[in-house]
């Protein structure tokens, strides 16, 4: 009989931990690599690569507990497939990147797809994780249960930390049942009006699960019990989108394969207050999440884009292109940055994990 | 623990009392600095009154500038500071430090801004949890996390404890329902954690602060996410002749793809106590009772409660009763919400435990617990958030009877160890505070604890905010490990904890 997966993964974890410990002693920087789908953003080209795809496998899955635990190098596509057999899903709808995106990467880069609007972000579904700190020590935080307030929330802190606060080796996610049915409605409507309309709807008890606006077209996805969808459709109006087209549309946003993302040029991601007015910047816009996530193609100067984002209650990330030397991540105020640096040092005193990433540090 | 009463103000630490009081009076109005014993007395404990300590001084700032000034005084004089909301905590988190200042945030009690379109409310930390839902009700909105203490507890305390409620299986904990908090570190730095957008620049400090029990920063403003009130709500009661069957029914409901808005369980003694207290019309012969709630559109509720009924019947429910109207639904909940005080009438004292276990182990753990309680001669009553696997065993005792509390503590420690053993945790929602500081050594090893200590030091290098709570010092765990917790008894309670 083959050894249980958890044993073999524990062996891989221990090997990785030994590698990190050695690197720490030698003050050797490490570059953490999952599926490599976000390499352009994690601008750390310094450091010896540490391949985490070796942490591949579902360790535990208990549908009645709504929890799945998997090695950080497990492809999200595999997680999706295992969950789908039980009509369950990762509610934040992360990009699968043709099978390359991994569990650890989804956490570190906090990737969320269309459903993130109503369901919540990656961090909202992290129940616990295991990691290797910058000294090479194997640690566990959180757990496999839904409620757990013992100790500081070091697990959720990993979401969006881009591997700077530990090598994530194993993650437990809360999962949810798949909706029974989905329908997408389409409306021809200008941007300002769409922002208003969507947020009015979001304040009503409607089975909304995703929304997008670009080029004068608002699309709204409803998910739930068929009868509830039917009555919501009557209430909202609009035009029903063909099921295949709808599926393709949401998939293209989830995977960022939508034509909006095609080609070179500068691409910004703004995370702003959903009800913030239409941005006063030149260029093309596509937004999701009720207006909270706005993609912007513009050649406007970075300082202007960032100032607008702040005015809209948020921040801006440079996803692609831009002038050389422009930070990817939104810079922090000096005192807040110092606080972030102290947190980093608490977990990685030698600063060997992904040095330079994220660049707000 | 113990009743360590330092009622007389005297010099401890770096600053003597006169100096400390003078410095505080320089930044606060005279009536916001309490030094009389009588005035300080109400602050000596939170809801866990077995742990008491008199603070040197109590301060009542009324705005953020005053909070900042108090922090700066404490920082300058190196005096410990404990923040307090409304003192309903159940783990001694707001218990004062005998060397320090107790700062109540109760006067910061204004709702600053309601944005119905963005579905957010910006409030001061001393606003009561329920007051938020009341204030936004006219917009058809509410704040979802609803701890049973919601008429009294503060939103600042909720943030500090990451409080849950009876609806968190579907709607999440405090951490899932926050947009942003404004907070101050001990040296007076004001910063935002979270943002009005879906995420914030930098690390997720909002997640880190939520549940940090007042050890990292003092929260002065909270922006919460509001949800639209569901159009339809339906509740049902399902009776079982056996707790194990009821526990299995809970797991089966979830396995069937149903996420009920509420899924609570009461055992036989809890059901009978609640019935005698509020006459909720509960079936008093049941050995276990489930309260199951569905909410959403009319269609969703109809679909879900039909599916739920089928699962409950298959699991062997002896009776299923739907609330006929809103009044009856509220009555079902009134019994549940009054269960603690109702059980309180059964004995002079009770001790409420809070641990989480995987749902599939509910039945087995409950039966183990009844067995151990029988052996130790302690009466235990269970009423809890079954859908979350969050247990709240109530251990009844009489503090006046020698040995009674000691037996209770033994069982309490064994229950927490059991929770960890079956894959759960020592606290689901009440926090570690001072009460579970030693159980932290069971759940985390010294490397993990050292990360917590490092994070603490990143915010508060001198360890002035809420010392002795939430995270044990490494040598404390080492001592515990070496001596072993004999029969759950802590050998040296006087050891420093942070
Ligand atoms: C009858 C009863 C039922 C309960 N039911 C539940 C329940 O269902 N779910 C649940 O989760 N809890 C429950 N609790 C526990 C308690 O109500 C919660 O923990 C609550 O969040 C505490 O709020 P508080 O304002 O009373 O905080 P306090 O008790 O005053 O303080 C709690 C902690 O928060 C810190 N703190 C308070 N305000 C701030 C601030 N502004 N900044 C930084 N730190 C701060 C304190 O230092 C302390 O560590 C219950 C308690 C009782 C008595």
Structural topology:
The complex is a heterodimer of chains A (361) and B (498).
Chain A: H1 5-25, E1 30-33, E2 48-51, E3 58-62, E4 67-71, H2 76-84, E5 88-89, H3 103-108, H4 116-119, E6 126-132, E7 138-142, H5 154-157, E8 167-174, E9 176-177, E10 181-188, H6 191-202, E11 208-214, E12 217-224, H7 226-236, E13 239-240, H8 243-254, E14 267-271, E15 284-288, E16 293-297, H9 302-311, E17 315-320, H10 334-347
Parallel strand pairs in A: 1-2
Antiparallel strand pairs in A: 3-4, 4-8, 5-9, 6-7, 6-8, 10-12, 10-13, 11-12, 11-15, 14-16, 14-17, 15-16
Chain B: E1 3-4, H1 17-25, E2 33-34, H2 37-40, E3 52-53, E4 57-59, H3 64-77, E5 81-84, E6 101-104, E7 111-115, E8 120-123, H4 129-136, E9 141-142, H5 155-161, H6 168-171, E10 178-184, E11 190-194, H7 205-209, E12 218-225, E13 227-228, E14 232-240, H8 243-255, E15 262-267, H9 268-278, E16 288-296, H10 298-314, E17 319-322, H11 326-337, H12 339-344, E18 349-352, E19 355-356, H13 362-376, E20 379-384, E21 390-391, E22 393-397, H14 404-421, H15 440-443, H16 446-459, H17 474-483
Parallel strand pairs in B: 1-3, 4-6, 5-6
Antiparallel strand pairs in B: 2-4, 7-8, 8-12, 9-13, 10-11, 10-12, 14-16, 14-17, 15-16, 15-20, 18-22, 19-21, 20-22
Helix pairs in contact in B: 8-10, 8-13, 13-14
Bound molecules: flavin-adenine dinucleotide.
Describe the structure.
The complex is a heterodimer of chains A (361) and B (498). With 361 residues, chain A is an alpha+beta fold. Chain A has 3 domains: 5-177, 2-Layer Sandwich (Uridine Diphospho-n-acetylenolpyruvylglucosamine Reductase, domain 3), CATH 3.30.465.10; 181-254, Alpha-Beta Plaits; 265-320. Chain A contains 10 helices and 17 strands. The longest helix of chain A is centred in the first third of the chain and has 21 residues, at 5-25. The model of chain A has no long low-confidence stretch (mean pLDDT 95). Chain B is of the alpha+beta class. Chain B folds into 5 domains: 3-104, Uridine Diphospho-n-acetylenolpyruvylglucosamine Reductase, domain 2; 111-228, 2-Layer Sandwich (Uridine Diphospho-n-acetylenolpyruvylglucosamine Reductase, domain 3); 232-340, Alpha-Beta Plaits; 347-421, Alpha-Beta Plaits (2-Layer Sandwich), CATH 3.30.70; 440-483, no CATH class. Helix content of chain B is 34%, strand content 19%. Chain B contains 17 helices and 22 strands. Chain B has helices spanning 17-25, 37-40, 64-77, 129-136, 155-161, 168-171, 205-209, 243-255, 268-278, 298-314, 326-337, 339-344, 362-376, 404-421, 440-443, 446-459, 474-483, and strands at residues 3-4, 33-34, 52-53, 57-59, 81-84, 101-104, 111-115, 120-123, 141-142, 178-184, 190-194, 218-225, 227-228, 232-240, 262-267, 288-296, 319-322, 349-352, 355-356, 379-384, 390-391, 393-397. In chain B, the strands form 6 sheets. A 7-stranded antiparallel beta sheet of chain B has the order 17-14-16-15-20-22-18, with helices on both faces. A 5-stranded antiparallel beta sheet of chain B has the order 7-8-12-10-11. A 4-stranded mixed beta sheet of chain B has the order 2-4-6-5. Chain B starts with a strand and ends in a 15-residue tail after the last helix. Mean pLDDT of chain B is 91; it is low at 1-12 and 482-498. Chains A and B meet through strand 7, helix 5, strand 9, helix 6 and helix 7 of A and helix 8, helix 10 and helix 16 of B. Residues 46-47, 82-90, 93-94, 105, 125, 147-149, 153-154, 156-158, 160-161, 163-165, 213-214, 218-219, 340, 429-430, 466 of chain B line the site of flavin-adenine dinucleotide.
């Amino acid at each position: 009989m083959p050894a249980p997966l958890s044993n073999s993964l524990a062996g891989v974890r221990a090997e990785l931990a030994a590698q990190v410990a050695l690197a720490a002693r030698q003050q050797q920087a490490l570059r953490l690599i999952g599926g490599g789908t976000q390499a352009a953003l994690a601008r750390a080209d310094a450091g010896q690569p540490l391949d985490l795809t070796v942490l591949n496998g579902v360790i535990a899955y208990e549908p009645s507990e709504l929890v799945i635990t998997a090695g950080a190098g497990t492809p999200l596509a595999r997680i999706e497939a295992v969950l789908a057999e039980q009509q369950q899903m990762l509610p934040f709808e992360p990009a699968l990147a043709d099978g390359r995106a991994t569990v650890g990467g989804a956490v570190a880069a906090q990737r969320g797809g269309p459903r993130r609007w109503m369901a919540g972000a990656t961090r909202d579904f992290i129940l616990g994780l295991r990691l290797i700190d910058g000294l090479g020590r194997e640690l566990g935080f959180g757990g496999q249960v839904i409620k757990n307030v013992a100790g500081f929330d070091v697990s959720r802190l990993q979401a969006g930390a881009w591997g700077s606060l530990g090598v994530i080796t194993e993650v437990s996610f809360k999962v949810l049942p798949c909706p029974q049915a989905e329908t997408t409605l389409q409306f021809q409507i200008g941007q300002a009006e769409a922002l208003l309309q969507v947020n009015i709807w979001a304040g009503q008890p409607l089975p909304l699960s995703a929304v997008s606006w670009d080029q004068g077209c608002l699309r709204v996805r409803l998910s739930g019990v068929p009868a509830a969808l039917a009555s919501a459709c009557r209430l909202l109006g609009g035009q029903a989108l063909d099921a295949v087209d709808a599926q393709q549309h949401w998939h293209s946003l989830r995977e960022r394969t939508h034509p909006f993302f095609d080609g070179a040029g500068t691409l910004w991601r703004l995370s702003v207050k959903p009800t913030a007015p239409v941005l006063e910047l030149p260029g093309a816009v596509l937004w999701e999440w009720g207006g909270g996530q706005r993609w912007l193609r513009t050649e406007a100067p970075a300082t202007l884009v960032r100032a607008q984002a702040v005015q809209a209650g948020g921040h801006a990330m440079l996803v692609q292109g831009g002038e050389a030397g422009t930070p990817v991540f939104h810079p922090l105020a000096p005192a807040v940055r110092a606080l972030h640096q102290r947190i980093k040092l608490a977990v990685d005193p030698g600063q060997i994990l992904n040095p330079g990433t994220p660049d707000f540090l | 623990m113990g009743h360590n009463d330092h009622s007389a103000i005297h010099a401890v630490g770096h600053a003597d009392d006169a100096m400390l009081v003078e410095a505080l009076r320089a930044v606060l109005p005279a009536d916001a600095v309490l030094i009389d014993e009588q005035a300080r007395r109400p602050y000596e404990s939170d809801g866990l009154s077995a742990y008491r300590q008199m603070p040197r001084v109590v301060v009542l700032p009324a705005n953020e500038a005053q909070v900042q000034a108090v922090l700066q005084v404490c920082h300058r004089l190196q005096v410990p500071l404990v923040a307090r909301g409304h003192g309903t905590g159940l783990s001694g988190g707001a218990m004062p430090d005998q060397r320090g200042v107790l700062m109540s945030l109760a006067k910061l009690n204004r709702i600053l801004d309601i944005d119905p379109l963005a579905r957010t409310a910006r409030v001061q930390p001393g606003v009561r949890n329920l007051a938020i839902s009341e204030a936004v009700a006219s917009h058809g909105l509410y704040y979802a996390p609803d701890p049973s203490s919601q008429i009294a507890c503060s939103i600042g305390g909720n943030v500090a404890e990451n409080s849950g409620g009876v609806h968190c299986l579907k709607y999440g904990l405090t951490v899932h329902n926050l947009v942003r908090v404004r907070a101050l570190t001990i040296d007076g730095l004001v910063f935002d954690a979270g943002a009005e957008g879906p995420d914030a620049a930098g690390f997720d400090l909002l997640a880190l602060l939520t549940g940090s029990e007042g050890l990292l920063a003092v929260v002065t403003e909270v922006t919460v996410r509001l949800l639209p009130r569901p159009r339809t709500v339906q509740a049902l009661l399902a009776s079982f002749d056996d707790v194990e069957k009821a526990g299995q029914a809970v797991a089966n409901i979830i396995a069937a793809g149903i996420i009920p808005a509420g899924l609570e369980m009461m055992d036989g003694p809890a059901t009978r106590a609640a019935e005698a207290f509020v006459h909720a019309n509960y079936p008093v012969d049941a050995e276990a009772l489930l309260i199951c709630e569905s909410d959403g559109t009319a269609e969703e509720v109809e679909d879900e409660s039909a599916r739920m009924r089928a699962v409950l019947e298959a699991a062997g429910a002896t009776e299923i009763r739907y609330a006929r109207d809103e009044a009856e639904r509220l009555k079902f909940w009134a019994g549940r919400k009054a269960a603690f005080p109702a059980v309180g009438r059964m004995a002079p004292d009770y001790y409420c435990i809070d641990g989480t276990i995987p749902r599939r182990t509910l039945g087995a753990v409950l039966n183990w617990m009844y067995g151990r309680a029988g052996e130790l001669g302690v009466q235990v009553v269970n009423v809890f958030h079954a859908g979350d696997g969050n247990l709240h065993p109530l251990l009844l005792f009489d503090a006046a009877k020698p040995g009674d509390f000691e037996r209770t503590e033994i069982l309490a420690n064994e229950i927490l160890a059991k929770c960890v053993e079956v894959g759960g945790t020592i606290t689901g929602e009440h926090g570690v505070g001072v009460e579970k500081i030693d159980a932290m050594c069971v759940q985390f090893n010294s490397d993990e604890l050292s990360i917590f200590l490092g994070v603490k030091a990143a915010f508060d290098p001198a360890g002035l905010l809420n010392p002795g709570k939430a995270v044990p010092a490494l040598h404390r765990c080492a001592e515990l490990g070496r001596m072993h917790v004999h029969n759950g008894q802590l050998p040296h309670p006087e050891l420093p904890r942070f």
